From TrEMBL:
GO terms for molecular function: ceramide kinase activity. PROSITE patterns: DAGK (PS50146). This is Ceramide kinase. Residues 24-46, 317-340 are annotated as: Disordered. GO terms for cellular component: membrane. Residues 27-42 have a biased composition (Basic and acidic residues). Gene3D superfamilies: 2.60.200.40, Probable inorganic polyphosphate/atp-NAD kinase, domain 1.
Length: 510
């Protein structure tokens, strides 16, 4: 839509228009705001100009790209020689916007006041709600009162037909609550038994939006490219869609949890366990727990079996990255999952970490992520095995998550692209070489672990770690994991290529 404003040509893509308003409407809003005492002075310029142009100008609010994948809402005011022409412009743009069926008009919003730096309510009120209002999006907002409030509300109560999407204001844990609520509800409505690992799950139709206000926020970062509430709100408003894989985690024939980012045993499991005791510290809890667990340097013994992804989905050490519209993230890769015949493989050993990343897990701590070439929606996960090694070597591996060097290019690290995997821990007190499978003892593992930790004289490190499943601790160590291709949809478009962002783009202010 190229039009002239103050003699300058502005080209705005209709799909990236947030709203269009005639100046008179803005004046009315301004007066209303003044009456209700919410004036912040930002309308002053528009008002001065508008007094002489009343009825002859309209303002288009649109997406403007800034540096580092950030978007902001910019405004441009156009003046017309006649009032009728101005009306025509406004009506035409409104009709075009209304014709974009992918845009949401009603959203169900859950705010977690407890996550991250406990700023979610403020972030939503100050940065997001005004944008939704500007775009004419109706919202039903629920501030959660306890853990799993959002999940249970989605499962049992929410009238989902009324909404075009659900939004969480929080971190990865809050996103996980929405995934669990929606996936559970969809399977229940479709008569699917979620306890059977072999069962094909039904994809959820409602999209999920994430306004980042947590500690890691890796799902937002890896699907949008930045953790910025305004950018995420704009992706929701323009109606973006990004499919995403979800892994189901079972213990025998019991469903445990779904995972969309990291399933980590050993290092990341121990970091999470320790960090939960330090939640009062906010996001810094992970740094302290990370340092402590690095120094502790526990390794764990067990058996990993996995089903390789097979051909057509690339390799974990490819140079290519998952980017917006990437061809590998297409539904046809589902075909491969059905035909995978490469057969199961088995690896036994002592590991510092066993990580499965269904996506890159990029986050501000590690901008390229745990597995930089992993894809959001290809039906696979990257299984990373870090074998027992020296502290120095483990540090080399960890440091490479934050540098350009390849964290997999080390003799004690291996990585496989998989569709399924299983893990069985081995008991530390076993003298025999035979695998003592711990399924039976799983429930008692906390006690055993405690005995070993509390009695250094026994010279035995804890036998078990815990699984970190998207930031939640799993109750079992022996697990069976299966990746479900494109089970959910997000209000996102994947990380845009750098070329989409003008090198000279302004550095957006908050
Ligand atoms: N009102 C509440 N009171 C207590 N806990 C809550 C409440 N609402 C949600 N939760 C729980 O808070 C936990 C943490 O939330 P969230 O993921 O939003 O933040 P975080 O853990 O700081 O961030 P991240 O997961 O990105 O590291 C989740 O397990 C969620 O289930
Ligand atoms: C200078 C030293 C550099 C060290 C680099 C360490 C590498 C960091 C990689 C971070 C990977 C995060 C993976 C995402 C996990 C989330 O599902 C989970 C919930 O939000 N967060 C954590 O478990 C929090 C995990 C935090 C671990 C520290
Ligand atoms: Ca994937």
């Amino acid at each position: 839509m190229p039009v002239f404003a103050s003699g300058v040509c502005h080209s705005v893509c209709v799909s990236e228009i947030v709203a269009v308003r005639e100046e008179e409407e803005e004046e009315t809003k301004k007066e209303e705001e003044e009456k209700s005492g919410r004036d912040n002075g930002s309308w002053k310029k528009i008002r001065e100009r508008q007094d002489k142009d009343r009825g002859l100008s309209f303002t288009v609010s649109y997406v403007e790209r800034c540096r580092q994948h950030r978007w902001r809402c910019a405004h441009v005011t156009f003046t017309c020689p006649q009032v009728a022409l101005c009306h025509r412009w406004v009506n035409t743009i409104r009709e075009q916007l209304a014709a974009i069926s992918s845009r949401p008009t009603q959203l169900l919003v859950y705010i977690n006041p407890y996550g991250g730096k406990r700023q979610a309510k403020r972030v939503y009120k100050q940065k997001v709600a005004p944008l939704f209002a500007l775009a004419g999006i109706g919202t039903h907002v629920i501030v959660t009162e306890y853990a799993n409030h959002a999940r249970d509300h989605l499962r049992e109560e929410a009238e989902l037909k009324k909404y075009d999407g659900v939004v969480c204001v929080g971190g990865d844990g809050m996103f996980s609550e929405l995934v669990h609520g929606l996936v559970w509800r969809t399977q229940k409505d479709g008569g699917v038994d979620v306890n059977r690992p072999e069962q094909t799950l039904i994809a959820c139709s409602l999209r999920i939006g994430i306004i980042p206000a947590g500690s890691t926020d890796c799902i937002c970062f890896a699907t949008v490219g930045t953790n910025d509430p305004v950018t995420s709100a704009l992706h929701i408003i323009v109606g973006d869609s990004q499919p995403m894989d979800v892994s189901s985690v079972h213990h025998d024939d019991t469903f445990l949890r779904y995972s969309v980012s990291l399933l980590g045993y050993g290092f990341y499991g121990d970091v999470l366990t320790d960090s939960e005791r330090k939640r009062w510290m906010g996001p810094a809890r992970y740094d302290l727990a990370g340092l402590k667990m690095f120094l502790t340097h526990h390794h764990y013994e067990g058996t990993v079996t996995y089903l390789p992804a097979g051909a057509g989905v690339g390799e974990p050490r490819d140079a290519s990255r998952c980017r917006s519209g990437a061809s590998v993230d297409q539904a046809d890769s589902k075909e491969d999952s059905e035909n995978a015949d490469a057969g199961w493989r088995t690896i036994r050993g002592k590991f510092l970490a066993i990580n499965a990343a269904s996506m890159s897990c990029a986050c501000p701590r590690s901008p390229k992520g745990l597995s930089p070439a992993a894809h959001l929606a290809d039906g696979t996960a990257d299984l990373i095995l870090v074998r027992k090694c020296s502290r120095v070597n483990f540090l080399r591996h960890l440091l490479r998550h934050a540098s350009k060097d390849d964290q997999f290019d080390l003799s004690f690290v291996e990585v496989h692209r998989v569709r399924r995997f299983r893990f069985t821990p081995r008991h530390c007190h076993s003298d025999s070489d035979s695998d003592l499978e711990l399924d039976l003892l799983d429930g008692k593992r906390q006690i055993f672990g405690q005995i070993c930790r509390d009695h250094p004289a026994c010279g035995c490190a804890p036998a078990f770690s815990s699984w970190n499943c998207d930031g939640e601790i799993l109750p079992h160590t022996a697990i069976d994991v299966r990746v479900h291709c494109q089970l959910i949809q997000l209000f996102a478009r994947g990380i845009e290529e750098a070329a989409m962002f003008d090198e000279l783009a302004p550095a957006c202010s908050a």
